Amino acid sequence: MSENFTIFVTGGAGYLGSILVPELLADGHTVTVLDSFMFKQNSLGHVCADPNFDVHRGDARDANLLKPLVKDADIVIPLAALVGAPMCNNDQLGATSTNRDAVETLMGLLSKDQRVLMPITNSGYGIGEAGKHCTEESPLNPITLYGKTKVEAEELVLARENGLSFRLATVFGMAPRMRIDLLVNDFVYRAVNDRAVVLFESHFKRNYIHIRDVARAFKHAIANFDDMRGEAYNVGLSDANLSKWELCEKIQEQVSNFVFMEAPIGEDPDKRDYIVSNEKIEATGYAPAHSLDVGIAELIKGYRMIKNSIYGNV
């Protein structure tokens, strides 16, 4: 039997938290969530019946609120963040204070024995070298405020001997608190609903990972923490370092009337163009269980339920 822990999660009702928190509860852990519920979501409604679950509404930047909630936690998972370059650019003060400063506040409240598992983004690698995999030793070159604040948060966590970080590939898959804006999720939504997408920078490559495999990475690290602590780990599908064009070809295999084309209509603020090595975490015994093809099939089913068109008549 694996050991059961008391776990505190900030932002636990978000896209990742809405998958991870029920998984942690199912493993027998006691989980307390702090979330602002800024998206008016009820993504953890289905676990409120669990006596090992508790939830608080509030701001992850509020030290007075955090203090009693972290006091008895064995493990802290800071998920609260403004995620993505556009959102961070729209609220730069909020991005800095939530993505970096709140993590600094949290680290200041913890004892040296408390463990921290921190997700950041592998967009911290910026523009990769052609044909060369980014490893955890590759220089970090974040371009946007989002990338910079997450890299700074990682530094704060890794400065502790009892912390580790996951540099997540672009996440995809259905979740109770859904995000349609993530690349795979977005492209499948467009394929299902619009039958078409216009690509820019279609040759730019990046790595992908299913949201349930992200949750599995956290569970893996909890079970193997002593061997993994103090390090950063890339988390992605090693067989899915794909360009946007190649991703669309994958989607077209399952949505046959999907059309895609290239036009110079925009640019990625993060300049994400890199291939990633996930060998370090794989060497610890972790392996993803959900392929890109499986995720696309799942999203197609999900989008039969979700229509993001509150102002439309159809």
Overall average pLDDT: 93
Helix content: 25-40%
The name CATH uses for the topology of the domain at 6-172 and 209-236 and 278-284 is Rossmann fold
What separation lies between the terminal Cα atoms?
A: 52 Å
State the shape: globular
What CATH first level of the domain at 6-172 and 209-236 and 278-284 would be assigned?
Alpha Beta
Please identify which CATH superfamily of the domain at 6-172 and 209-236 and 278-284 we are dealing with: NAD(P)-binding Rossmann-like Domain
Question: How many alpha or pi helices?
Answer: 11
Could you tell me the radius of gyration in angstroms? 19 Å
Largest β sheet strand count, sense and barrel closure: 7 strands, parallel
Strand order of the largest sheet: 3-2-1-4-5-7-11
Strand segment tally: 14
Portion of residues in beta strands equals: 15-25%
Do you know the CATH architecture of the domain at 6-172 and 209-236 and 278-284? 3-Layer(aba) Sandwich
Structural class computed from helices and strand pairing: alpha/beta
String of helices and strands? EHEEHEHHEEHEEHEEHHEEHEEHH
Low-confidence stretches: none
Blueprint (SSEs and pairs):
Elements: E1 6-10, H1 17-26, E2 30-35, E3 53-57, H2 63-70, E4 75-78, H3 85-90, H4 92-109, E5 115-121, E6 133-134, H5 145-158, E7 163-168, E8 170-172, H6 183-193, E9 196-199, E10 205-210, H7 211-223, H8 225-228, E11 232-235, E12 241-243, H9 244-252, E13 259-262, E14 275-276, H10 279-282, H11 292-302
Parallel strand pairs: 1-2, 1-4, 2-3, 4-5, 5-7, 6-14, 7-11, 8-10, 9-13
Antiparallel strand pairs: 10-12
Helix pairs in contact: 1-7, 2-4, 4-5, 6-9
